[in-house]
Amino acid sequence: MTYIKKKYYFKTSSAVIALLILELVFWLATLSIYQYLTLNVKEFRFEYPSILWLFTVIVLINIFWIRNKIWKRRAIFNFAEINTLSKIFNGFSNNRSTIKYFIFRISVGLLIIAAANPQYGENERTVV
């Protein structure tokens, strides 16, 4: 592979490893916060716990993102000339696009949690 093509080569394996690390950190943080809240906060519950099943959509989004990256890489190297790669990728950063996806992925997870409407507090009762 020439230097020019190597410059525009996107390492899918490094993106997948970074995605797995992000998923691990997200799930560990989410589950540890949930564990803390259920053990230490009175009356913690979700108003709509069935919405939490939407977390499975995140797995599908991750799979589609990885497949899209692989498809883009193959399409670029099958159809683009070495001379035109610098014009096609002028101002494009693989790292920036990966970071944008990670921020999008975290925001979808937090929106799902917000849609489930976590609630906590104590029930106030008047004693007569």
Structural class: mainly alpha
Number of strands: 2
Q: How much helicity do the residues have?
A: 55-70%
Q: What's the story with the biggest beta sheet? A: 2 strands, antiparallel
Low-confidence stretches at least 5 residues in length (pLDDT < 50)?
none
Mean pLDDT: 83
* Count of alpha and pi helical runs: 5
Globally, the shape reads rod-shaped
Strand order of the largest sheet: 1-2
Task: Measure the end-to-end span.
Answer: 83 Å
- The share of residues in extended strands comes to under 5%
User: What is the radius of gyration computed over CA atoms, rounded to a whole number of angstroms?
Assistant: 22 Å
Give the domain tally: 1
The arrangement of helices and strands along the chain is HHEHHHE
